[in-house]
Design a protein that fits this description.
The chain is an alpha/beta fold. The chain contains 11 helices and 16 strands. Helices cover 36% and strands 27% of the residues. 46% of the residues are buried.
């Protein structure tokens, strides 16, 4: 397997960066230490430009290749996410989180370290034309840090023509990759339903509008959306995962709150789900007499891999690890705000094997440091292939 020798040489350094980041997890946009760490490394490597504060706490590094064309500059974006999760770590590792209740349970510490490793190599060699734009993004887990960076002019300011992303994947063999053209990960929104009924004594339900009963009716009704309103060949999910109401057995509460998510693999299906939810809420309100407010909060668009860029990504991965170790996966119903970047520019998102580890978002998860040479080499080969002199 043609892992780049220079990457193998400084694998211990990349592993050290990764473990330092793992010990100091930060959430969402509050990644000030992580951003400063990234910016300092990029300056040490000799990046031509290092810009902080894109999308509040995002960092962008630019490395120019040996060959530049003023008439038609070409810049390829590579993105890594930096934020951790509000989870109490249970690994017991020597480099475990030093902040109780926060941990890198999704491997963003590994993603950041691998892209830093690629930056170091590319800044040394510059064996490409145009520019490599290294994007270190906050707030992937929630609050759409990708959208915030785009709103701050990421694509235009750095002349990004294509953009690529990568995520480690537990259960996928170490030294392998997985990717597909088209829908890669689902679009999603958080759904919140606030029910205002009329509370009262549990002995007199006829004097009340019971928000618990209304909530139960809604939970049952929304299951018909996937079961009966969608083509069986379409993929979607509607899950109500929170139900908050009442505090004592003898009182029918005044209000209730339902929360959950909707997920789909096409924009058309997503809009259909939203429309049916609105109709179900309106009908249930009329039937019950309760006041019901439906909100769609946050979320991310479909992560859609563009065909041409996927083809390049597959070719690079096969060159790195061999054809037998590059797989075509089914679409994944988890979501990823890299979809915003793929709406703004053509590109592709690939999975890198993390081996037999605990699952993502699990308190026993840890990024596999043995994946570092594969992910780092993939980034380098992608730039050198796309921007071949």
């Amino acid at each position: 397997m043609p892992i780049i020798n220079r990457v193998a040489d400084f694998h211990p350094d990349i592993k050290g960066w990764r473990r330092d980041l793992h010990q100091h997890p930060e959430l969402l946009y509050d990644v000030h230490r992580t951003s400063a760490f990234v910016a300092a490394r990029l300056r040490e490597f000799g990046c031509d430009e290092v810009v902080e504060g894109i999308g509040r706490t995002g960092v962008v590094g630019v490395i120019k290749g040996r060959i530049q064309s003023d008439s038609s500059p070409i810049s390829i974006g590579l993105r890594a996410d930096m934020d951790a999760l509000p989870i109490l770590e249970a690994t017991g590792l020597p480099y475990a989180s030093q902040t109780p209740g926060k941990m890198h349970a999704c491997g963003h510490d590994g993603h950041t370290a691998m892209l830093l490793g690629a930056a170091r190599y590319l800044a040394e060699t510059r064996n490409f034309r145009g520019s490599a734009v290294l994007i270190f993004q906050p707030a992937e887990e929630e609050e759409a840090g990708a959208a915030a960076m785009i709103k701050d002019g990421l694509m235009e300011r750095f002349d990004v023509s294509e953009v690529f992303g990568m995520h480690n994947w537990p259960g996928l063999e170490l030294g392998s990759f997985s990717i597909r053209p088209g829908p890669m990960m689902a679009a999603y929104n958080v759904v919140e339903i606030n029910i205002e009924g009329r509370g009262g004594h549990a002995s007199a339900p006829h004097d009340c509008i019971d928000p618990v009963l209304v909530g139960a009716q809604l939970i049952t009704a929304v299951q018909q959306i996937v079961a009966r309103n969608l083509d069986p060949l379409e993929a979607a999910g509607v899950s109500i995962s929170e139900f908050h109401a009442g505090s004592t057995p003898g009182v029918i509460p005044q209000s209730a709150v339902l929360r959950g998510t909707i997920r789909s693999l096409s924009a058309e299906v997503h809009e259909l789900i939203k429309a049916r939810l609105s109709e179900i809420v309106a009908g249930t309100a009329k039937m019950s007499g309760a006041q019901i407010e439906l909100s769609f909060i946050g979320g991310a668009p479909l992560t859609f891999n563009h065909p041409d860029q996927t083809e390049i990504a597959v070719a690079v991965a096969k060159d790195l690890v061999g054809e037998a170790n590059v797989h075509s996966n089914r679409p994944i119903m988890a979501a990823e705000d890299f979809g915003y970047m793929l709406e703004a520019r053509p590109g592709a998102y690939i999975l890198c094997g993390n081996g037999d580890s605990a699952g993502l978002h699990h308190p026993a998860y840890d990024f596999n440091d043995e994946a570092i040479p594969y992910g780092t080499s993939y980034w380098i080969k992608l730039i050198e292939t796309k921007l071949a002199p």
